[in-house]
């Protein structure tokens, strides 16, 4: 029996054209946020610590403004909507796996994906500043302090039963790429894959991703 394809797709910079979380910090973050971001990218600061620290500086009462800003400025990457339907037709399981935050991802994914297909960090705005919650933390096999641990989610889908495909663009996708049967990458993730010797297929639109999957499926079946 052939393995079911499971797509683990990033959000910021992947499903969305923009790094939405970065655009929010540019608009609402406190001075010095860039240094924290750069420390996360260089892997000198964990994602969980960096993201938690940055949002802890933002007053909770500004979250509705941030949601409105994300709705105005974020655009989905070309072909993404069609890719969701493509996965349904092909019988591929699609999961949005993001280190972003629920308060902007859920509104942007309305009518496209049910929430049980979205894995992201959650937020608590009941206090004076935004507190990030981590419902999808690292399992016993990961010590990277990911916050939203993509490899831990992938391990729920063993490679003996599933063909695991990672689609992403950034540093948070690299640990997942190391576990994947196939990687479709752009931007920083493609650079990191080359440096680590991880094979990958490049993409710019989700039409490219569909083309890659069709080609690989034909090769496997042929």
TrEMBL record:
One of its GO terms (molecular function) is phosphatase activity. Keywords: Amino-acid biosynthesis, Hydrolase, Methionine biosynthesis. InterPro entries: HAD-like_SerB, HAD-like_sf, HAD-SF_hydro_IB_MtnX, HAD_hydro_PyrdxlP_Pase-like, HAD_sf. One of its GO terms (biological process) is L-methionine salvage. The keyword Disulfide bond does not apply. Signal peptide: none annotated. The keyword Metal-binding does not apply. It holds the Pfam family HAD. This is 2-hydroxy-3-keto-5-methylthiopentenyl-1-phosphate phosphatase. It comes from Candidatus Methylomirabilis limnetica.
């Amino acid at each position: 029996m052939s393995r079911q394809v499971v797509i683990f797709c990033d959000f910021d910079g992947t499903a969305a054209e923009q790094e939405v979380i970065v655009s929010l910090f540019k608009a609402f973050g406190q001075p010095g946020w860039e240094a924290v971001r750069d420390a996360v990218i260089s892997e000198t600061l964990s994602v969980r610590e960096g993201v938690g620290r940055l949002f802890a500086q933002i007053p909770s009462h500004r979250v509705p403004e941030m949601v409105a800003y994300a709705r105005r400025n974020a655009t989905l990457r070309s072909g993404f909507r069609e890719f969701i339907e493509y996965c349904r037709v092909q019988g591929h399981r699609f999961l949005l796996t993001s280190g972003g935050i629920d308060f902007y991802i859920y509104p942007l994914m309305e009518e496209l994906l049910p929430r049980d297909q979205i894995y992201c960090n959650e937020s608590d705005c009941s206090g004076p500043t935004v507190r990030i919650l981590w419902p999808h933390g690292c399992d016993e096999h990961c010590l990277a302090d990911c916050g939203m641990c993509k490899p831990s989610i992938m391990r729920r889908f063993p490679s003996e039963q599933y063909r695991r495909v990672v689609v992403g663009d950034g540093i948070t996708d690299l640990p997942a790429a190391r576990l994947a049967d196939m990687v479709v990458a752009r931007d920083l993730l493609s650079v990191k894959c080359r440096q680590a010797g991880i094979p990958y297929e490049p993409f710019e639109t989700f039409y490219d991703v569909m083309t890659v999957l069709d080609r690989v499926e034909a090769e496997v079946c042929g």
